[in-house]
Structure formats: structure tokens, C-alpha cells
Write a structure and sequence with these properties.
The protein is of the alpha/beta class. Helices cover 21% and strands 35% of the residues.
Length: 136
């Protein structure tokens, strides 16, 4: 199983820092393939609750060419993420204990990530406590 954070990723922002609140599906899919992950635990979904829109990197543009494959190291610094934007659920989900009780937009976001990373998301965390880990 691989663990990935909904709020973090290797994306760089225009100031050169790490991107956050943007999920990099290309890098995560590559990581899952490299590790042979059979399932994923998606964590930190709760911190996205206040956003009206949530970007997901679904591809990279390298020297004008679009790719959904994770680039070789030599090309990585030239890779510009291409984003798909999903609507946010704009509500606190930290008290929800069942995946089925999550807002429809939160479930749609999780299911879209699952589709993009090509690995089942079996666990979803909506907070730091053990009881905030939901089984799908």
C-alpha cells in the first residue's frame, strides 16, 4: 500500500517553493507503479474543505509537448503541470466517520484521483486521529 497526501505534492510554485493544495496525479501514479502499490491511503483530505476549487495535475507540458508520463530527471525541471480543476465541497468534514457520508463533491474528488492514479484508494483520512481514517 502507498500513502499519499491530498494536500501535498512535488509541484513547484512560481516562487520556487513546494506546491500545496494541488494533487500531482502524474507523480503519484508513477510512484504507485514504481512501488507496486495495490492500494492507496489518501490523507489530509480535510484540509481541502475550505477551497472553492481544487486543482489536480493530470499531465505535464515539456517543450510544448503534453505528456501524462512522469518525465525523466533531465526533463523534470522543464515540466509545467497541466491542471484539471474540480469543485471544492467547502465544508468541514473532520467529524465524518464514514466514506458514504462525505459530501458528494469530496467523494467525486477522491474517485477522480483514484481514476487518474490507476490504483484503488482503500483508505481516506479526514484528520490526524486514528478514528478519522475511513475504509472505503
Amino acid at each position: 500500500m502507498a500513502v499519499t497526501r491530498a494536500s501535498m505534492g512535488p509541484l513547484r510554485d512560481v516562487r520556487g517553493g513546494l506546491g500545496w493544495k494541488r494533487f500531482d496525479a502524474v507523480a503519484t501514479r508513477y510512484g504507485c507503479q514504481l512501488q507496486g502499490a495495490t492500494d492507496v491511503a489518501l490523507t489530509n483530505v480535510d484540509v481541502l474543505g475550505y477551497l472553492s476549487e481544487i486543482p489536480i495535475a493530470t499531465a505535464y507540458k515539456i517543450r510544448g509537448q503534453l505528456t501524462t508520463a512522469f518525465p525523466a530527471t533531465a526533463d523534470l525541471m522543464e515540466a509545467e503541470p497541466v491542471f484539471e480543476t474540480m469543485p471544492g465541497w467547502q465544508t468541514d468534514i473532520s467529524q465524518i466517520q464514514s466514506y458514504q457520508n462525505l459530501p458528494a463533491l469530496a467523494r467525486r474528488y477522491i474517485e477522480r484521483i483514484e481514476q487518474l492514479i490507476e490504483t484503488p484508494i482503500s483508505f481516506v483520512s479526514n484528520g490526524p486521529r486514528r478514528e478519522q481514517m475511513m475504509v472505503r
